[in-house]
Structure of Probable molybdenum cofactor guanylyltransferase:
Amino acid sequence: MKALTVFILCGGKSSRMQSEKGLVLFQDKPFIDHIIQAILPITNQIKLITASKQYDYLEYEKIPDLIVDKGPLGGIYTALSHSETEFNLILSCDIPLISTELLQELISKHTKEAGITIFASESKTHPLIGIYSKNILSVIKESIDSDELKMMDLLAKLPHQIIKIEENENFPLTNINSIDELNDLNINLS
Ligand SMILES: Nc1nc2c(ncn2[C@@H]2O[C@H](COP(=O)(O)OP(=O)(O)OP(=O)(O)O)[C@@H](O)[C@H]2O)c(=O)[nH]1
């Protein structure tokens, strides 16, 4: 198996959710617990990129952002800076439907040459469910220094591999940003 660390991004403002996003309850469990459950059959090398004490109930290492207020890119920068493995699975904290199978697919299809491997359908790219190589750290730092914080701009600068998925395969990759989106999800599943 490839040496791998999983980093879950749990920073940011959660302005649309208005409460700590990773801790929102879905089917009686915080989002982040669903995500950890999907990761554990693969590895227990899990670290949370957060400064929030609210995640202290989880046993995993927590790392605060090295550069604050830079969005997910700042979280990825912190993750890769602390990483001791070449491959790093970066996940947002708002994807409660993610499955072990999809994560395994991503890991198995990543190649050293790719730098970054992510899923995308015709209509949607999922940069915050991806494998990121440590060797892209300098490009991320330059992007942060020049305030180019959009994930899609980072992808444009670097070689990356896209695992193509059908439109109907987006569902388990859905990220939930607000209570309205959570209500829609619950309705969808009922
Ligand atoms: N470590 C870290 N993670 C972040 C940061 N900003 C966003 N994230 C994470 O990145 C993922 C996507 O976040 P977004 O939905 O883009 O932003 P958000 O600030 O959480 O939410 P909004 O304020 O509603 O946009 C989530 O897992 C966030 O926890 C940050 O500055 N640092």
User: Anything to note?
Assistant: Helices lie at 31-39, 71-82, 100-109, 137-145, 151-157, 179-189. The mean pLDDT is 96. The longest helix spans residues 71-82.
